[in-house]
Design brief:
This is Stage V sporulation protein K. Pfam families: AAA, AAA_lid_6. Keywords: ATP-binding, Nucleotide-binding. InterPro entries: AAA+_ATPase (IPR003593), AAA_lid_6 (IPR041627), ATPase_AAA_core (IPR003959), CbxX/CfxQ (IPR000641), CbxX/CfxQ_RuBisCO_ESX (IPR050773), P-loop_NTPase (IPR027417), Spore_V_K (IPR014232). By secondary structure, this protein is of the alpha/beta class. It is about 45% helix and about 10% strand. The protein has 2 domains: about 210 residues, Rossmann fold (3-Layer(aba) Sandwich), CATH 3.40.50.300; about 80 residues, Helicase, Ruva Protein, domain 3, CATH 1.10.8.60. It contains 11 helices and 9 strands. The strands form 2 sheets. It has a 7-stranded mixed beta sheet with strand order 1-2-7-3-6-5-4. It has a two-stranded parallel sheet with strand order 8-9. A hairpin with a 5-residue loop joins strand 1 and strand 2. Helix 8 packs across helix 10. It is globular, with a radius of gyration of 22 Å.
Length: about 300
């Protein structure tokens, strides 16, 4: 399997998560097994997720990078500067927030972050209504994120308004604190790949401040089916054979259609499941069918897709 982390000429690390790639089994460390219990705890949580096949490998490399630098310092050797701000590129529902939360836990356990908590925000949480308001709002969020991770979704929206837009003030404030307090918190910017690339092009020098870039591809149809089944299992529902076939065909159509660039992956499946459960409840109530099997089964007529009413 190709290494998912590639070093660019500017020293930046680029990571692509290939959901179809085979992940090499994790080998037990030769030293004391207790030394790496932290990593195994995080891997167990990742293994409970559908897809994300390369994330475990990526996190293991980041973990190794941190530990080896600590060992080098202990031996009096030069250690690489550990700036861990990151950029996550990909469509919604591909696991970006979940991975950010797990990374926060890992960094807290290995002593990189004091708390490891996740503060999620978007443009409206950062941008104010008058000069100076944006900087204060941004500083307040950074203060809340101290010791943890500040996760900004749809971060490209901060650069859409041009020079006079207050979003630029938010960017400037973030950049200043990324430098001044780079070891006190980790900043993760997330958003669509194309928009994030355009955002970086508008802000020279910004890309170099994010040494780790991870691209999250869309889930495959089978992975989306697995996600749906897991969601239903948690709620104690099952799909009938016909419903499963209908859902698979619909997901195949959606992924091959023009809207795939805005496909929301796991969120899309969750919306289908929630709407279908409500439709099933209405059907059972009208037909007065309340035996255990019917209460658990979602049938093809219950499936409600987002573009249907």
């Amino acid at each position: 399997m190709d290494q998912p982390i590639r070093m660019k000429n500017n020293g930046q690390i680029s990571i692509t998560l290939n959901r179809k790639a085979r992940v090499e089994p994790v080998t037990e460390p030769k030293e004391q097994t207790g030394d790496h219990e932290i990593l195994r705890e995080i891997e167990e949580q990742l293994n409970s997720l559908v897809g994300l096949n390369d994330v475990k490998h990526v996190i293991k490399e980041i973990y190794a990078w941190i530990i080896v630098n600590k060992k080098r310092e202990e031996k009096g050797l030069k250690a690489g500067k550990q700036v861990l701000h990151m950029m996550f590129k990909g469509n919604p529902g591909t696991g970006k927030t979940t991975v950010a939360r797990l990374i926060g836990k890992l960094f807290q356990k290995v002593g990189v972050l004091s708390k490891g908590h996740l503060i999620e925000c978007e443009r409206a949480d950062l941008v104010g209504e008058y000069i100076g308001h944006t900087a204060q709002k941004t500083r307040d969020l950074i203060k809340k994120a101290m010791g943890g991770i500040l996760f900004i979704d749809e971060a490209y929206s901060l650069g859409r308004g041009g020079e006079k837009d207050f979003g630029k003030e938010a960017i400037d404030t973030l950049v200043k604190h990324m430098e001044d307090k780079q070891h006190d918190f980790v900043l993760i910017l997330a958003g669509y790949s194309r928009e994030m690339d355009h955002f970086l092009a508008l802000n020279p020098g910004l890309e170099s401040r994010f040494p780790i870039i991870i691209e999250f591809p869309d889930y495959t149809v089978e992975q989306l089916m697995d996600i749906g089944k897991m969601m239903m299992k948690e709620k104690e529902y099952i799909l009938s054979h016909e419903a499963e076939k209908k859902l698979r065909e619909h997901l195949s159509f959606v992924k091959s259609s023009f809207i795939r660039n805005r496909f929301s992956n796991g969120r899309y499946v969750r919306n289908i499941i929630e709407k279908s459960i409500r439709a099933q409840a209405m059907r059972l109530l009208i037909n007065n069918q309340f035996d255990r099997s019917e209460l658990m089964t979602i049938r093809s007529q219950d499936l409600i897709f987002p573009d249907e009413h």
